[in-house]
Design a protein that fits this description.
- The protein has 336 residues and is of the alpha/beta class.
- The chain has 2 domains: 115 residues, NAD(P)-binding Rossmann-like Domain (Rossmann fold, 3-Layer(aba) Sandwich); 176 residues, Dihydrodipicolinate Reductase, domain 2 (2-Layer Sandwich).
- Helix content is 36%, strand content 26%.
- The protein contains 9 helices and 15 strands.
- The strands form 2 sheets. A 9-stranded mixed sheet has the order 14-13-12-11-7-10-9-8-15. Strands 3-2-1-4-5-6 form a 6-stranded parallel sheet, sandwiched between helices.
- A hairpin with a 2-residue loop joins strand 11 and strand 12.
């Protein structure tokens, strides 16, 4: 029997990223959509001919009793929607960030455990072909002992431009939430460890108090360092990452993946991927696959447990980066 799913929040990421990903899963049927905005409900009606479309979350949960809810609304609405879905007995997959407050994150994790339901966050960059290669290179020991990761995300403006949630503080916008979350779960996954401390510089738009530039240092055990630079002030759009160990360096820019060994030998490990359109439906299909497997395994599944830990730590890193920036870049240590 197929799992019956509902989508809450039918913006562009749901329409162009999540929905195409769900449609690749034979064991999934999207039966309903919750969306407050009339024009987005009309789009959902056009794209999902057999689904029922609601403007009220509670009515959808009561009327449909879905097996799971996929939340793709702006961040400010995540916590309340997660709570309502879990209370209705549904498993939950939520777009990043899982929520905006650490105490709230812990409450939601406890609620999911009490209800014996899976709660996961969409960490889709782990499924990007280039980063899958990077993880394989690390697992094979080709870099030797990993020492450093540098993550740069340069943009000329927030995705979607002005007027979208990324540009609105009240909706949970800002570059730390948008791009920092991705960088922080990737850092944990690639380092395979928990961070020790954070130091950060943040710059904000004077008129809106929206953070649009961030430079962050995250220290991991054994003097391993992650540097993250995020900008909406750049003259060009570019996403690049470098990793080096004591034996080799791996450079990623778009689909280009180059391994350079200490000897000077170069191995081109470049991949082919869909264009970088911010929605990445192919990556979401693999997120959906992991979520479906977690539901089948039960709330204590390893993939769900690891995902929640990554999400909690990503939020801790964001909060610590803000604290550090408020103190002029002083180091904020994490309790072990």
């Amino acid at each position: 029997m197929k799992l019956r799913g509902a989508i809450s929040g039918f913006g562009e990421v749901a329409a162009q990223g999540h929905l195409p990903g769900w449609l690749t899963r034979e064991g999934i049927s999207i039966v309903a959509v919750h969306e407050p905005m009339p024009e987005r409900r009309q789009l959902a009606m056009r794209l999902l001919k057999n689904a029922r479309i609601y403007d009220d979350l509670g009515l959808m949960l009561d009327g449909e009793a879905p097996d799971f809810v996929d939340i793709a609304s702006p961040p400010a609405f995540h916590a309340g929607t997660i709570r309502a879905a879990l209370d209705a007995g549904a498993h939950v997959l939520c777009e990043k960030p899982l929520c905006l407050d650490l105490a709230e994150s812990d409450k939601l994790a406890r609620l999911a455990a009490e209800r014996s339901r899976v709660l996961m966050c969409v960490h889709n960059w782990k499924y990007a072909p280039a980063f899958a290669v990077a993880h394989q290179v690390l697992a094979a020991g080709r870099l030797g002992t990993l020492r450093f990761i540098g993550i740069d995300r340069l943009r000329t403006e927030p995705a979607g431009g002005a007027g979208k949630w990324r540009s609105e503080v009240v909706l949970g916008g800002g570059i730390l939430i948008d791009h920092g979350w991705h960088a922080f779960y990737l850092a944990q996954w690639l380092m395979g460890d928990a961070p020790l401390s954070v130091s950060a510089f943040l710059a904000r738009q004077e008129a809106t108090d929206l953070d649009d530039l961030a430079d962050i240092r995250v220290l991991f055990p054994h003097d391993r360092l992650v540097r993250v630079h995020l900008s909406w002030r750049a003259p060009v759009r570019r996403t690049s990452t470098v990793l080096y160990g004591d034996q080799a360096m791996l450079e990623i820019e778009g689909d280009r993946v180059i391994l350079t060994e200490r000897s000077g030998d170069v191995d081109d490990l470049s991949v082919q991927d869909a264009p970088d359109d911010s929605y990445h439906s192919a990556w979401f299909g693999k997120v959906a696959e992991d979520f479906e497997r977690a539901i089948n395994e039960g709330a204590g599944s390893r993939v769900a447990t690891r995902n929640l830990l990554e999400a909690r730590t990503a939020l801790r890193l964001i909060m610590a980066a803000r604290e550090s920036a408020s103190m002029g870049g002083s180091t904020v240590a994490f309790a072990r």
